[in-house]
Amino acid sequence: MRYISEKILVFSLLSFSTSFSQFSEQIVISTESNGPRSVNIGDINNDGFKDVIVSSNWDNTVSWYENLGNQGSFSDKNLIGFANSTIYSSLADIDSDGDLDALAISGSQDRVYWFENTDGLGSFGSRQIIAINFDGAFKVEGADINGDGFMDVVASAMNELQIYWFENINGTNTFGPKQVIANMNTVGRYFNLVDIDNDGDIDCVSSSVSPQIASWYRNDGLGNFSSPIAIAGAGQAVNALYSADIDGDGDIDVITGSIGDNQLAWYENLDGQGAFGGKNIISNDVIDIWSTFTADLDNDGDIDIITGSANTLVDVSWFENLDGEGTFDTKQIITTDVEGVVAVAAGDLDNDGDIDIVSVSQSDSKLAWYRNNTILNNDVFLSTALKIYPNPANTVLNIELDTDEIDDVVIYNLQGVEVLKENKNLKQINIGNLLKGIYFIKVSTNQKSTTLKFIKI
Predict the structure, then answer these.
(1) b vs e for 42-81, b when ≥16 Cβ sit within 10 Å of the residue's Cβ?
(2) What 3 state SS string does 133-163 have?
């Protein structure tokens, strides 16, 4: 399995320490992208800082903004390429060369594209067609669907009522014909690519505005998907969807935001195999919700939720997971200084160890971020004291620590699920059995800890 997109970063980059979370006033990155529709985060130029990719519907561009490393300062707009009426773009290592390429869709030309990051520094080649005649192209992501170690592409075709995947044939960056994941028979747009049943491959979760339903589709590991498995009671006109381990039990739950009843809710994966419980209402106050994302915003070791609302009540807000089991606090508004929020994402933009938030709002053409001013306990040692190598790694990851002996080492995947743990002082950890992708390694010693990211190849 490989799932490189930073869009699904949900695990805190620092230790689980007692803290509180508050956010700065809005910091505008740019208003250069005319009518932005999507935002995602990833290290595009491999300098260790999280950059931002944006698709812009009104000026038909896919662009990126370089994080200059000065506590979250960003460059001007860097053009990746053009795609008519592009309403979604994302990042994935399509050509398996260790850097992030760009994926985009054209809403008016009904096409799916990718752009090669030619030098690993953010210089992109011309657009390459993955699919044409893709009616109502809406969203695109990269994931290893058939378990062959190469990045495939998944996209939703709203007017065809389908979600398809395209095989990256033998890693040649030549894509096969579209293969059906989900025949939704609905006006469906959103999907998540996660391992719902804990069998080591990527399943698909989808939602629709009409009729009102959320479902998931089981992958047999080779890219053959089951009929839809309904997730009960999933709101009135689901317009936002995300998946993460909300209750800390090691499996992936589902979050929905619905515009018909203004509800934010989550559904527990009861058995880790995809049998879902009923609706757990988080809030009835997410009017015109358009986007949701998850991250540990207060560094307490559980998953909180971020929302973006458009139209009637416009805001970027977050909901604190109070007990790590899915009991949430009331909505905390981060900003209302936006016009038509259509996407939110999260990542550590200023490299201070906590998770910041980024948003795009279409009506004011604004790309902005919000600094997380979390104050941490003093029992956290700096990540500079810990070194891991090689990175990327294939079979063995070396651990070098200049201070105390190591008490334990825990590795998590992008959804925050523990995948490997060693309770001993060690200088190497065998990662050969891990699937390909991005992971986080948390090293603890004498009640101190830190977390670093690595890539398994």
Answers:
(1) bbbbeeebbbbbbbbbeebbbbbbbbeeeebebeebbebb
(2) CCCCEEEEEEECCCCCCCCEEEEEEHHHCEE
User: DSSP secondary-structure letter at 12?
Assistant: -
- Domain architecture of the chain: domains with CATH: 27-370 (2.130.10.10), 387-456 (2.60.40.1930)
pLDDT in tens, the chain (457 residues): 444 343 333 333 333 333 444 899 999 999 999 999 999 999 999 999 999 999 999 999 999 999 999 888 999 999 999 999 999 999 999 999 999 999 999 989 999 999 999 999 999 999 999 999 999 899 999 999 999 999 999 999 988 889 999 999 999 999 999 999 987 665 567 899 999 999 999 999 998 766 667 899 999 999 999 999 988 665 567 889 999 999 999 999 999 998 888 999 999 999 999 999 999 999 999 998 999 999 999 888 899 999 999 877 789 999 999 999 999 999 999 999 999 888 999 999 998 888 999 999 999 999 999 999 875 444 444 455 678 888 888 999 998 877 668 888 989 886 667 899 988 778 889 999 998 887 888 888 876 777 787 888 8
Task: Calculate the dihedral angle through the C-alpha atoms of 118, 124, 130, 132, rounding to the nearest 10 degrees.
Answer: -160
Name the region of 432 (left: φ>0; alpha: ψ -120 to 50; beta: rest): alpha
How far is it, in rounded angstroms, from Cα 160 to Cα 173? 25
In this structure, the number of other CB atoms found within 10 A of the CB of residue 403 comes to: 12
> Which of helix, strand or coil describes residue 29?
strand
Residue 417 and residue 410: Cα distance in Å, rounded? 10
Tokens of 341: 């929020």
Copy the structure tokens of residue 108: 């008016």
> Are 385 and 402 spatial neighbours (Cβ–Cβ below 8 Å)?
yes
Tell me the whole-structure pTM to 2 decimals: 0.80
Q: How far, in Å, CA of 112 to CA of 187, rounded?
A: 19
